[in-house]
Write a structure and sequence with these properties.
The protein is an alpha/beta fold and 589 residues long. The chain has four domains: 190 residues, 2-Layer Sandwich (Beta-Lactamase); 165 residues, 3-Layer(aba) Sandwich (Rossmann fold); 104 residues, Helicase, Ruva Protein, domain 3; 75 residues, Homeodomain-like (Arc Repressor Mutant, subunit A, Orthogonal Bundle). The strands form five sheets. Strands 1-3-2-6-5-4 form a six-stranded mixed beta sheet, sandwiched between helices. A five-stranded parallel beta sheet has the order 8-11-14-7-15, sandwiched between helices. The chain has a two-stranded antiparallel ribbon with strand order 9-10. Strand 12 and strand 13 form a beta hairpin. Helix 1 packs antiparallel against helix 2. The longest helix is centred in the first third of the chain and has 49 residues. The two termini are 44 Å apart.
Length: 589
């Protein structure tokens, strides 16, 4: 039930034209003002409250009330002016319910000259007269919608014998107001029902669409070695499933350790060439002279040590797929030779004259910013356009934290199979792994799990078995090098502007400044506060001990070791040593 009791109408020009019996001119003006209110863009309870309030300007109304009933005949909206209850503060409690029921049941107006002498008002006559300070008259009319009574409009005014009995003009005016109010209520209810129907249809359609998409969405391809259920991995696998059907050249881009070789193998296994060879070559692992022989092969006697003819990787991959890993590291002269093979599909062995033609699907991989290399003249633009047909960005592990647990379990199972063990990761150990950033990505996670599995003395990998839990992980030291000081990974920037992870194993992921040389906690803390704006820096206050300064830094950084390390100007590993030295227990929020 909605109650709306607007403030009394302000005195104005309309208040000067009040009449006990409104003239035709005043009635027209009143209907005009009320129609403007009813056409306003507001909630229905506010509109009806404003209508009741404005009636005081055109009638000698002291108390007014509009009651709108719901489908079962109970009050849904009560808009009143001047009414008050001495019991529970509801106007409907003051006006006898029998009066409203009479108007609704008979669908006819009610006019009472003196409520004190009418048995319908016996329970409320004293309260009403006390509100008016004398005798009171009551006028009530039904509010209809489609010939059905949906509410009542009633007013109470001061009664005197001189003007007794003149209700016809007032009742006519109230009937017109009630008719307008009924149309407005009907329109609002129609709009409300339409809106509800629209929302229900929308929810039904969205549900049906989601179900249809779930049913029609192609299942993710089963690829050996690739573990993950995150949206980032799902998106890559869906792209690979489409790309694998063609012979188009693919360029896999991503940070070191994201599994570029595994995804290249997935492209091959899902392609029509899966029955043919999958050949791979790391271009950065060989000098140019050896690389040319490895890719194109050589004839007998082509160079010292060439004791026989040898087929190159392009020949071996004929009909299949060739992965050129770290393609961004090849020299400019070799880039020209490689470009010819990609354009013409033909080459000569080293020391040979016979032209060979091959049919090879090429997949390239790099963690280098090739666009930057092209701009610097380090990589041929024509070769870049040739291999960058379909670039696929592999997400770093920090962008798929939900996959850390799945990967860790897979690595433990692999370790158990290789070593005849039955290890498992405890919940505390798993939480520690999930809080790590792993700048080395999946490769670093695998090494971390293997190291802990190898060194653990029990049947499970606990939190304390992980090097990052005891401050002995050197990866964070590598990650704070000057090479990452710029704060943005080029590959990640091309894939969507991601920032690299902090030198901490606790998120969030923001690029840190280069770490200063290691220093004792006291000296580093003092140096961190040399340029502090406040003169009471706790790191240099002589009254604080080293332990107190450490605790203060931890409190200020929310017990995040990496942040505390930056406050004190030391490394996270030194923070870990200091916490163990003073036996300070970590707080977790």
């Amino acid at each position: 039930m909605t109650h709306f009791a607007p403030p009394a109408a302000a005195a104005g020009p309309a208040s000067l034209i009040r009449r006990r019996r409104p003239s035709s001119e005043i009635s027209l003006l009143g209907l005009y003002e009320i129609s403007k209110i009813l056409n306003g863009a507001a909630r229905l309870d506010q509109i009806l409250g404003n209508v009741v309030n404005v009636l005081t300007s055109f009638l000698d109304m002291r108390l007014g009330m509009i009651v709108i009933l719901d489908a079962v005949g109970e009050p849904e909206i009560i808009a009143s002016a001047g009414w008050a209850s001495e019991a529970r503060g509801k106007p409907i409690d003051t006006l006898p319910r029998t009066v409203i029921d009479r108007i609704v049941a008979t669908s006819t107006p009610i006019a009472v000259e003196d409520v004190a002498h009418d048995p319908l008002f016996a329970p409320a006559a004293a309260v009403i007269e006390s509100r008016l300070g004398g005798h009171a008259s009551f006028l009530g009319v039904p509010i209809k919608s489609d010939e059905k009574v949906i509410g009542t409009l009633s007013i109470v005014r001061t009664w005197d014998e001189e003007n007794a009995g003149g209700f016809d003009a007032d009742l006519s005016f109230l009937k017109m107001v009630a008719n307008l109010a009924g149309q407005t209520v009907r329109l609002h209810r129609m709009l409300s029902a339409e809106r509800k129907r629209f929302l229900d249809e929308r929810r039904t359609l969205e549900k049906a669409l989601d179900q249809q998409l779930a049913e029609t969405r192609a299942p993710l391809p089963k690829v050996g070695g690739i573990v993950g259920e995150s949206d980032a991995i799902r998106k890559v696998l869906e792209t690979i499933a489409v790309v694998a059907k063609s012979n188009t050249t693919v360029l896999l881009r991503g940070e070191s350790g994201t599994g570029k070789e595994l995804f290249a193998r997935a492209i091959h296994d899902l392609s029509p060439r899966s029955a043919k060879p999958f050949i791979k070559l790391n271009c950065a692992a060989l000098p140019e002279s050896v690389l040319e022989s490895e890719l194109f092969g050589h004839e007998k006697g082509a160079f010292t040590g060439a004791v026989g003819q040898r087929a190159g990787r392009f020949e071996l991959a004929h009909g299949g797929t060739l992965l050129l890993d770290e393609i961004g590291e090849i020299s400019g002269s070799f880039q020209a030779k490689l470009l010819r093979v990609l354009q013409e599909g033909e080459f000569e062995r080293v020391g040979g004259t016979r032209t060979l033609k091959v049919n090879v699907r090429l997949v390239c991989a790099t963690n280098k910013n090739l666009e930057q290399a092209v701009a610097k003249g380090e990589f041929r633009a024509d070769l870049y356009y040739r291999i960058n047909v379909i670039p696929i960005f592999l997400p770093p592990l920090r962008d798929r934290p939900g996959d850390v647990g799945l990967l860790a379990k897979a690595f433990v199972e692999r370790f158990n199979a290789e070593n005849g063990r039955k290890l498992a990761i405890t919940s505390s150990g798993m939480e520690m792994l999930k809080s790590c950033a792993f700048p080395g990505n999946v490769r670093e996670l695998e090494n971390c799990v293997r190291r802990a599995a190898t060194l653990t003395r029990g049947d499970s990998i606990r939190r304390e078995d992980l090097s990052c839990a005891v401050g002995e992980c050197l990866s964070s030291q590598l990650w704070t090098g000057a090479g990452r000081a710029a704060g943005v990974d080029p590959i990640a920037e091309l894939a969507g502007g991601r920032t690299i992870v902090a030198p901490s194993y606790e998120r969030p992921r923001a690029a840190p400044p280069p770490a200063p040389p290691a220093a004792p906690v006291e000296e580093a803390a003092a140096r961190a506060c040399e340029h502090a704006d406040s003169g009471d820096c706790p790191a240099v206050a002589s009254r604080l001990t080293e332990k107190e300064r450490l605790l203060d830094a931890m409190e200020r950084s929310g017990w995040v070791q990496a942040k505390a390390a930056r406050v004190l100007g030391i490394t996270p590993r030194q923070i870990g040593y200091a916490l163990r030295k003073y036996r300070i227990e970590m707080k977790h929020f």
